[in-house]
Design brief:
Blueprint (H helix, E strand, L loop, with lengths): L12 H8 L2 E11 L4 E6 L3 E7 L1 E6 L2 E6 L3 E4 L4 E6 L3 E10 L4 H4 L6 E3 L2 H4 L1 H9 L20 H22 L7 H6 L1 H12 L7 H7 L4 H12 L3 H18 L5 H7 L5 H12 L3 H12 L4
Antiparallel strand pairs: 1-8, 2-7, 3-6, 3-8, 4-5, 4-7, 6-9
């Protein structure tokens, strides 16, 4: 039985993802680190860290991530374990709990999202983060330079949702999101078919085969695919094959005939026609031009 799905074009996928994210603020605080200081900082809840000044490295899971002043590191499922300052640094850390509607979307995120130069991309929101440093005090913080105001918890909670949404949007716009991430957000069923096409571009895929992968009926799949991707499955497959063909012709050095065979074409001529339509040049001519442009200048 095919799943009943609302039609959501891919250009609306980010809106859908952001709309599903909802957070409840736990705490926020500013921490000063001296040059070279290394501190264990286990954080099991979602949060983000904004490097207000200096340089630092943060370990999320087993991965070390380098930050410079103005960068933000978002860890949507927690997992921050250690902070290591490069030069003297100030870090504003905000932790929060994910509300129930966020759970499904959170599974689509990597363990850490780094947005570099956030203070340049979103200067007003960077100032909001600076102002959040004392919305909720850490349990271990004793020095209070500015008393907390009534209503800070609510106000900063709303700010948190806005800032995280901006972080995710900037992460997508900077091209940091994994390949086809928005398709996964928009429709996990169609994304299965897209992943299958990219994994085996040389397979003789039929619409029925792809519909089976997506766990949908053939007619529902074809309509849904075109709505989401903006192309028919056959047209999209051709594009995937051409991109794979470029890789095989250049980096792997396959002949035109071997490339055609690897990508499921019955003849070299059929592959060459499709390649010319896609690039404007025959495969051999295109490869020679690429080789020419990659030669270092004398």
């Amino acid at each position: 039985m095919s799943p009943t799905l609302e039609a959501v074009p891919v250009y609306g996928a980010l809106d859908r993802a952001l709309a599903s994210l909802e957070w409840v603020l736990s705490e926020s605080h500013r921490t000063r680190y001296s040059s070279g200081e290394r501190v264990l900082s286990p954080v099991d809840t979602p949060g983000f860290s904004y490097l207000s000044s200096g340089t630092a490295s943060m370990r999320v899971g087993s991965e070390w991530i380098e930050l410079e002043a103005g960068d933000v590191l978002f860890y949507p499922r927690g997992g921050l374990h250690e902070v290591r300052a490069g030069m003297s640094s100030e870090i504003i850390s905000v932790t929060f709990a994910a509300a129930e509607p966020s759970q499904n979307t959170l599974g689509l995120f990597p363990d850490a999202l780094l947005v570099t130069r956030f203070h340049e991309h979103e200067p007003n929101l960077a100032l909001l983060i600076e102002s959040m440093a004392r919305c909720v005090l850490s349990a271990t913080e004793t020095e209070i330079s500015k008393p907390r105001r009534d209503g800070d918890l609510v106000v900063c909670g709303l700010m948190t949702n806005m800032i995280v949404s901006a972080l995710v949007r900037q992460w997508v716009e900077l091209g940091c999101a994994p390949e086809r991430w928005l398709h996964r957000v928009a429709d996990p069923y169609i994304s299965r078919a897209l992943d299958a096409l990219h994994a085996e571009p040389g397979r003789a895929w039929s619409v029925q085969d792809l519909a089976r992968v997506a766990a949908m009926s053939r007619s529902s799949f074809a309509e849904r695919f075109h709505t989401l991707v903006g192309q028919t499955p056959a047209s999209y497959l051709t594009g995937v094959r051409m991109e794979a063909g470029m890789e095989l012709l250049t980096r792997q050095g396959l002949s035109v005939s071997d490339t055609a065979r690897r990508l499921g074409y019955e003849s070299e001529a059929g592959f060459s026609r499709a390649f010319r339509r896609h690039t404007g040049s025959a495969p051999a001519v295109w490869r020679e031009r690429r080789r020419g442009t990659s030669q270092p200048a004398a």
